[in-house]
Amino acid sequence: MTRFGRRYFLAGAGAAAASLGLGSIGSASPGRARRFVFIPTGNGYDAWITMSEMTKSYIREQGGTDPSPNRWWGAPDSAGRRGRYSESNTEVYSLEGALAGAPGLRGFESAGLLDRCMMVYGLSSAVSGAFHGNQHGLLSSTRTVSRLPGGQTIDSYLEQLDCVRGVGESTTPIGAVRIGAATNGFGSGISYDLCASGRGVPLPVVTSPHAAWNAYIRPFVDGGGLSEIELRSRLLDLAARDATASVAESRNPIARNQLERLRDAANTQEMNLDLMRSLVGERFGTLNDRMPSMPPASLGVQEYKRFQSDVALGALISGLTNVVVLSMGAAGGWGFRYELGPISSADSTHGTFYHPFSGLSDDSDEADDQIQRRAELRMAWTLELDSVASLAAGLAATPEPNGDGSMLDNTVLVFQPDNGTDHHGNVDDFPTLLVGGENLGLRTEGRALFYPDFRGGHENRRELYNLLATLGTTLAGEDSEEGSATTLGASIGDANQRLAPGILPELLA
Amino acid sequence: MRLSACICVLLGACQGQIGGEGSDGGPPSDTRGRDGGPDAPFVLGDCTDDEMELQRGVGTWLQNTCAHAGCHGPVGERSPSLAAADLASLVDRGFVVPGDPTRGRIMARIASDDPLLIMPPSVPENDETAVEMVEEWINIGAPTNCVAPPPRPAPSPNSHDQDTLFTCTDPVAFGPELALMNRTEIVHRTGSFLSEPSMQSNPFPSVTPLYSTSTVGRSFDATSLGLYLDVLGLSRDFRRTDRRDLLALRDRRGPNSANNLWRAGLSEEESVGLECFESGTPDDACKDAFVRLLLERYALQRRPTEREVDLILSFLEEELAIEVERDITIDHLQEASLMLSGAIYRTIDGGEDGTLSVDEWGLALAGALSSAPHLSRNYLGAPRPELAWSESFVQGRDSGALEDRAAAQSFIETVLDIDEGYVGGLDAVSAAPARPDIVYDDSVVTRNAPERRRLRRGRYWLAPRLAQFFREYFDYGDLVSRAKDEPLATSRWDDERVGSRDLRQHSNGYQRNKDANAIREPGLEDQMDDFIAREVVLAEQEGRDVFTALLTGRTYRVPASISAVNGARTIVRSVVPSGSCDPLLCRPDRDGVDACCDSGTCFFEGFDDAGAPVGSCIGSSERVAYSVASVYDTRPITETSAVTNALLEGSGIEDAIRNDSSREARWVEMPASARSGALTHPAWLSAHGGNAENGPAAIERGKWVREHLFCEDVAGLDLVGALAVQFVEGSEDLRARERLIATFGDLSLPVADRTAPDLRCANQACHGRMNNLGLAFEIFNHAGFVRYDDHGQPPSGQTLIRSWPGQDEAVEVSDAVELSQMLAADPHARRCFLRHVFRFFARRAETPADACVLAEMESAYDAEGGSLLAALSALLTSDSHMTRDITGAGR
Predict the structure, then answer these.
(1) A148, B207 contact by CB (below 8 A)
(2) Which sign does the torsion angle of CA A121, A122, A127, A129 carry?
(3) Which of B865, B882, B866 is nearest to B365 (CA)?
(4) What is the spatial distance between Cα B504 and Cα B614, in angstroms, rounded to a whole number?
(5) Which of A276, A331, A407, B385 has its CA 20 to 30 A from that of A145?
(6) What is the largest CA-CA distance in chain A?
(7) What is the DSSP string of B513-529?
């Protein structure tokens, strides 16, 4: 009888598991801590800020678009030309030690972390990006339809893996912390535009700094947080008792199922609360100097991002979670703001000021205010990356509890634009910054990795999906069986839209 | 290990695990067999592991790839159905011949690269490994008994035959139902308002595949429950922060606001009765009274059961034992009441005998009109007009007068009466505000200037739930997020005679028009709301057909006043700019006129030819004001000078502009040649128009018409990548309709006559049902402007529409105006509209078992000359709704 490759089975089963929204499907043995931090930046960003002189020289040598300071790299110029890394390169190329001097990476450089970073250029997508309202695509490699996600996002996938969340007493109280600044309005509370547990089922991202602090920091630093845990416990107990009684009273099987799920939800939350209570009991007061204080009544935009970044760091070093989504954005749309100068403060939302910057470029006669606007936006993204650098530095300064290096060694940070590099969503380039994670197999070393762009043929072109597969398999420790690494990530992304299966081995040591 | 875990995923033993952490489960799956009856018992065969894996892989791939709505889904119209990985039917019906991949049609379709054959039609070719997998499965004999198929997913409501849905043969009662609260409902239930930050993004659903109200059968999972607690805690935190006198957070309202509105709505007698609870040590009677009122007027909106009262009393005792402060205890008590399943779900089950109690049909009636709680009665000191019947309702309920079925029916019909009821009407300027959508849910307006905003809106209003239905049905509620880079393209404003500055001005005016918050004027969405409210109210009052009125009415509400001074049609408005003046913007314009910067009245207009921003002051440039409404202006350009200047010629116009605050002057009858009803309104066109004038707007618009007026599915656009990316490259002389045809073929031709073999989706499976419907709208650009010149050719909406339900021949249509009028007169389209009414207000999809209710709705609609309210009344008073099936079978 013909033996059939596991790829057949696993691809289908993985997709089915995702669509059914099943619970933990991970089984790899726990041990090494594996953490993931996803930092989507909304509405595209100008990858020019990630380019060092070495990178620019390489692009020029390859016959690519001149990385002029006078153009937004990914936006089309007046002739419709977007930035290209080469004229016709079809091979993957790694430019070693390429990041020194990149203006946007100054925070990493000053923290001595540049060699812990890697830029990946040329990753495209067949289903993500492309105009507004498709943010779920970045982390799921599926298409958002009618504001509903097309599939499970990678954070949801990872939080269900035993080797990420842990098992038994080592289970983190929270599978994934999702906070942001901000996708649906400044500090408005919760956003549903980015994460999903499955097709049509969005997951919330907490964009209120108060809510984030209350939920993820306060229990470790403030006695009021402990009281809040106890109150929650009483409320959940009440909900569970009421739902249990309601189940008994219900005569309709569908309604009964709904009530049972509510009861189970209350019980699950109570169990998570027990884990939380235990962790807080162990860590209370010991991390005060590393945790952010309660936010003031209002925060400036950059303070807001830095604060949420500090909350993310606190959630990781306290052991609350091993998966974080930290949404950012600095360029209009969905309430992203940048507030740096007179122009940007007048144009704090998606509107008439933003488009001219994205649409006009490469024009030496452009007006001063336009140059200023470009500079402001680039500074906004740089400050955003400064926050990411601060987060990475915090992890680097924290020893792994089991002595396995620093927490950064076991944490992969992924900074990506949700909409490609262009404001209105070209889908052929999602410049990605990867940081840390060397213990998990990532080879950073301050290099820039170039994948052939979409013109380079399908042979070596790679997509967001392939990056997600790499994160969800090899880096998550899920490739223990030969060949499985190319397929285990199959539950992420639309299988029928892939150009090439598998992971990105070029990212690995 | 993972392998066994994955096998378990698809085996029957695991079938009950639909949903999970972070999943809300969605509506229940259809567990019936292919013929609607129970599936025959599945007998597991004696298979090898490889056979099992292969069957599982093939089934999953085919289901994921093919079983979409509109394609090979459950009860889909195309054969075969691949829902639930139904491989057995593939074999039974000869699509697969076991052992021989060369026979049977499936391999020929999935292995093909012929665009006329390939399945799915959205891809140029299938993944090679998937095709090999199917081939191998056939080679080994196509086993179908190695793995039990997963539960059959619920069928798309559009998959049902429409005639059957309206043919009553055997009345069937609705099942008992639990409807998960939706996001808006929980905001209002907790005493908050929609723009309150801590509550507005609560974890209850706001979007579902059907309607925001379609929550029957949906569950609340652990993640959402955790977030719900976060939200409640956040609200409490805001309140406590208030106590620290942080001014920035003072205006919060919500579950824990200092004067929670349910208490403000109590009668004087009730309030006095609760004083015992405010401080000191309340006795048992006091606690009991407080808890009962809390549950009825706040959390449950019905009389609580004794069990619920006991549970909350028990919680109260615990809180009192550790009390720090009475207000905090009340906070916690309110939160506890919101944790009850009766607060999280709206329960309508008919009690012991299946007959809805007064409380239950009251909940359903209130839910048809409003997302606000009806028993709280007072909201900001004024009764919500759509719920102002609640006091008489409570009196009737408590006295027993409404126990009788006839009395209930009479009460509901009265509430839904356009003249005597609470469903909408004409808002009198001087009277108490009848615009709950304006007055109650906008914190800024509520606090500052509700009257100013009311004046800019139409006086016609609908109960918020009715208005919300239309927003969701026509799907224009999200158009602010629809990018329009060049909204003027191909319109009359896209003309060199207009001048670059004016072009920018009108572009900016349009963008502001699109975003109500940017102009403090009713934006396009509000303008559409007002248009719909007027058409519905007048049609109901005058006994005209509502559906026809919606698709043919031409009197739009514009964002500016129109004065008929000296015979000139001049559209203007009185913009009140926000924010401080920015010196960078307000500088002399290119004409040398000093665009002053006087006391914060600077208004950004656009950019000059050098790209510099230009601003001006309101009062010195009505051109700015005019530009906001220019999307409605269809007059041809005859002047070579700046059009906007010409418009302002004439003595006295400017004064009239400034002084005209007439609300009525904002109603404008549009030219009959340009507009006809909702589908030609700029709001709808913009919401379904994409980002570029030469993009795939026709596909989006055609898809909407096919699904919402013909009630037929078209496979989701999620099957393809970015739609615009697929288009053949655009050029200066290529119209959108030509790009569409070049990409997907001329779909007005019979399939056999189509000649281009390399076309994507050329087999007409999907685009044949959308594109040509949408071509009628090509007289408009993507932003809703009437086209003036379409890439050097006259704009054309000419199209030939195949597959028009009920029509044997292809239907020729000249443009969207004619199409709208044809649809308005089409009985199939009108029935489809009624199906959507059912979906929204019954909170679930219709099934053939609802045929008698749908028939009753249609009869009532017809009997009243086309009355939506009569149809709604028929639904809410029908036997099927008022008497529930308590056999336990459910639906």
Answers:
(1) yes
(2) positive
(3) B882
(4) 10
(5) A331
(6) 75
(7) HH-HHHHTS--HHHHHH
pLDDT digits (tens, 9 = 90+) for A232-280: 999 999 999 999 999 998 878 888 999 999 999 999 999 989 999 999 9
Contact B461, B536 (CB under 8 A): no
Question: What residues have CB less than 8 Å from B649, skipping those under 6 apart?
Answer: B568
Please list every residue in chain A whose beta carbon sits closer than 8 Å to the beta carbon of residue B340: 238-239, 242
* Contacts B336 to A, Cβ<8 Å: 234-235, 238
At B447-500, the pLDDT tens digits run: 444 555 666 677 899 999 999 999 999 999 877 767 777 888 998 888 776 666
Structure tokens at A217: 């920091």
Which one of B199, B222, B307 has the shortest CB-CB distance to A265?
B222
The single-letter DSSP state of residue A463 is: B
Cβ–Cβ below 8 Å for B237 and A214: yes
Q: Cβ of A500 under 8 Å from any chain B Cβ?
A: no
Do the bridges between strand A117-121 and strand A447-450 make them parallel or antiparallel, or are there none, so unpaired?
Answer: parallel
The answer to whether the Cβ–Cβ distance between A242 and B610 falls below 8 Å is no
pLDDT range class, residue A440, cuts 50, 70, 90: very high
Is residue B357 within 8 Å of B872, Cβ to Cβ?
A: no
Q: Under a CB-based contact definition with an 8 Å cutoff, are residues B194 and A188 in contact?
A: no
Tell the residue number behind the tokens 């003309």, with chain if given. Answer: B495
A9 min Cα distance to partner chain B (Å): 5
B-chain residues near A232 (CB < 8 A): 229, 233
Percent over 70 (pLDDT), chain A: 74
Average pLDDT on B372-392 reads 80
Confidence check: pLDDT of A147 > 90: no
> What does the pLDDT average to over A181-207?
70
Q: How far is it, in rounded angstroms, from Cα B788 to Cα B794?
A: 7
* Burial (CB count within 10 angstroms: exposed 0-12, middle 13-18, buried 19+), residue B398: exposed
How far apart CA B794 and CA B796 sit, in angstroms, is 6
| Range from A368-377, B249-258, B641-650, B802-811 carrying the lowest mean pLDDT | B641-650
Which residues of chain B make contact with A21, given a CB cutoff of 8 A? 18-23, 25
Q: Are A134 and A125 in contact (CB under 8 A)?
A: no
Q: pTM for the complete prediction? A: 0.79
C-beta of residue B721 within 8 angstroms of C-beta of residue A126: yes
pLDDT at position B473, please? Answer: 97
Whether B861 and B828 have beta carbons less than 8 Å apart is answered as: no
Beta bridge partners of A145: A148
Q: What is the DSSP letter of A212?
A: H
Query: How far is the alpha carbon of B222 from chain A, nearest alpha carbon, in Å?
Result: 4
Whole-number Å distance between alpha carbons of B308 and B341: 10
Question: With an 8 Å Cβ cutoff, is A248 touching chain B?
Answer: no
d(Cα B549, Cα B560) in Å, to the nearest integer? 23
What does the alpha-carbon distance between residue B356 and residue B880 come to, in Å, rounded to a whole number?
A: 10
B218·A258 Cβ contact <8 A: yes
Helix (H) or strand (E) holding B17: none
Q: Is the peptide bond before B80 cis (omega within 30 degrees of 0)?
A: yes
**Beta strands B799-801; B811-813: pairing state:** antiparallel
Residue of A nearest to B690 (CA): A131
Yes or no, beta carbons of A252 and B175 under 8 Å apart: yes
Residues 23 through 42 of chain A touching chain B, CB cutoff 8 Å: 23, 25-27
The answer on pLDDT for A316 being more than 60 is: yes
Answer yes or no: are the C-beta atoms of A195 and A153 closer than 8 Å. Answer: yes
- Residue B461, CA distances (Å) to B265, B346, B458, B786, B873 in order: 24, 27, 7, 28, 19
Question: What pLDDT shows up at residue B21?
Answer: 28
Q: Is the pLDDT of residue A204 over 90?
A: no
Q: Is B709 helix (H, G, I), strand (E, B) or coil?
A: coil
